[in-house]
Amino acid sequence: MRYCAILAAVIWAGLATAQGWEDRQVFGTGDAPLRVLSSTDTSFFRPIIEDFIATSPEVSVEYLVTGTADLDVLFRADPTAYDVVISSAMDLQLKLANDGFAAQLADVDHPDWAEWHDSLFAFTTEPAAIVINRAALGDLPVPRTRQDLIELMRAHPATFDGRVGTYDVRQSGLGYLFATQDARASETYWRLIEVMGRMDARLYCCSGAMIDDLIAGDLVVAYNVLGSYAEGRSETEAALTVILPSEFPTTMMRTALVSRQASDRPVAEAFLRHILALQATGDATRFPLPPLAAGDGPVIGLNPALMTYLDKMKRDTFIGEWEDAIVQDD
Amino acid sequence: MTAEVNTRGSLRTRLALILTGGAAGLAVILFVVVRALSAQIAQQGQDNVLSASMSSILDSALVRDGRVSLDFPYSSLSMLTTDADDRVFYAIYEGEVLLSGYDDLTVPQGVTPDRSRFTTVAYKGEPVRLATGVRRLIGADGQRTVSVTIGQTQDALSNTLNAISRNVALLGIGFFVLATGLAVWAASFTSGQLRRLTTSVTRRGPQDLSPVSKPVPSEMVPLVGSLNTLMSRLDHTLTQSEDFIAEAAHRIRTPLATVRSHAEATLQRVDHAENRQALLSMVRAIDESSRAAGQLLDHAMVTFRAENLEKGEVDLEEVLRELVQRMSPIADMKDITLDLVAQDASVLHGDAILLQNAFRNLIDNALKYAPAETAVMIRVDGRKVTVCDGGPGFAMDEIHLLSGRFVRGKDTGHKVGSGLGLTIVQAVTTAHGGTMTLSNRPEGGACATVQF
Fold first, then answer.
1. Is the pLDDT of residue B451 over 50?
2. How close is the nearest chain A Cα to the Cα of B102, in Å?
3. Which of A88, A317, B325, B374 is the most exposed place for a label (fewest CB within 10 A)?
4. Does B87 sit within 8 Å of A303, measured CB to CB?
5. Contact between chains at A313 and B92 (C-beta distance less than 8 A)
6. Is the ipTM of this complex over 0.85?
């Protein structure tokens, strides 16, 4: 245990200095801020946090943004350092709860399918999308399905070569979740990845970076981009088209948990309850993320099966196959 | 009236206690057994699912490129989804080397391929049910042993058990309440039979010695039989003794009359003062005996008739007027006047002969104790008859004893009397549901009041 503690301290110290947070902001003026570790861009959470601080002004919130895979490593290394963990990687979150990192909350009025073990709570439903730069695509038809996209790329390699992007599943927890769920649903995924590999696909850590490159025109198409991010940007950037693949949509739920070792459990719980309550209002200005929706097709289920692809052997096998398909440099 | 009886315990309480105690015991046994059975069944259910999950993981094991790999399906873990969101843990070992899963999970040792093992351990602060299975793989370089342990917390199981326990507890309580109700009913039904018998015996008149005729349960037949026999013997003895008394009195009275007439005849012929005095004493004694015998007969008659009243309409005023008329000669001899005052005299539903006898005894008493030149007041007021005389009155210290058999006042002196007069009055009054009170008048003289 001592070894672990020292290791954790070393890692933490290393991360604290070397950790380049994607974003780090403090809301409110309290002395001991509530530390929220999140994979969600601050822009989406700013109204939610401000709303929370308005109800309890003595509280301040430190909002730390990093990637889903990083987030899991950081939190496991020092669960006392963070009070609330928010991530789009449902599998990693579920494993955190399963491993006993999450506190159980009593009497939360929340749909049963959107919570697990009274400790992990989903508060959005967000589909994975194909996003296209309309201008870069030119006169080519807009693909509606994965199959369309495969055929389009095969027919017009010149347009797509080096200009297709997707998640690097080795870096991104969410990318890995989307990839494993796609692979579970259909063999089409592997053919798509193979074709993308042949097009010399560019691999990304996050949806934001893919959208940036799409807008810049460096990418024609990005696969498995977070729909919500793309929608948010496509409203301002008319060039982007967001397509939800019609044959089988992959929809994830963003989840939050309260650390069992949170320094201030009551405030952390209040914050989580506040998120769930705001989600339920359906007010887009107070809650800019897509709220929970049961009706829009199948959603990745919150259950222990999510841990299947987190199994070391399964992961090694999957990453191996994925690399074989997409990385064709050597 | 209830005589002192030795009591130990109560049949009803004992019966109710035995039955409710039995019911409580049965309810507890029911609860324990059903709960244990359902716990076993529920555990069996969880074990089956764990076993299926473990097998499906184990089945995916194969040796690839000299390495053991398990590419287990999504369903292996998804089948462990429960309503209570139970946590799931697993560990996959090749020999002693952890391939994947939780390295700190306690894996049972010595599991063989032909038999999987189920254990319950505490893991991460919760009881976890583990299923462990082993499989041997044949690779190019020989035999490999793969073991899979899959565990699940028991929240759903304990929820199910709690629900079952609640229902079984309700069932047990319901059973107990029902059985208790039945026990109380059975106990009170049983004791009710006894109580009914008691009531029917208690409610009888003092002279009623007839056998119990109402049907009784077979268990009580010996008791009731003995009771009936006892009462008929008692009845027989009583009748015999009263018959004997009446017979004796009758037998004595007739010879006494003969003796008296002889004594009076002799008195006519005797001149010597001493002898006359002796004869007079003799006549007085004979009178006293004869009167006593007469009253014994009266009393026997009253006792007999009181049991079987021959009821009819009796006009109190008429009865008394007739008595006054009949007794006036005796009163005249003693210079006593009999005054009858009737006011709203009632017509009573009773035995005329008995009532007449009672009133005659009252007037007789008054005439006996009233001094000469006084009046005996007989007053009828509704259903109340009062007879008062101008005599010395009752002695207050013995007034409550006077209605007893053969009890006479202390200062009766040489008056002829048997001590049965007021006893007869009392018996008749009681037989008619009335009361007799004795008192003294403030201005002197005794009063006997009969209120029907």
1. yes
2. 9
3. B325
4. no
5. yes
6. yes
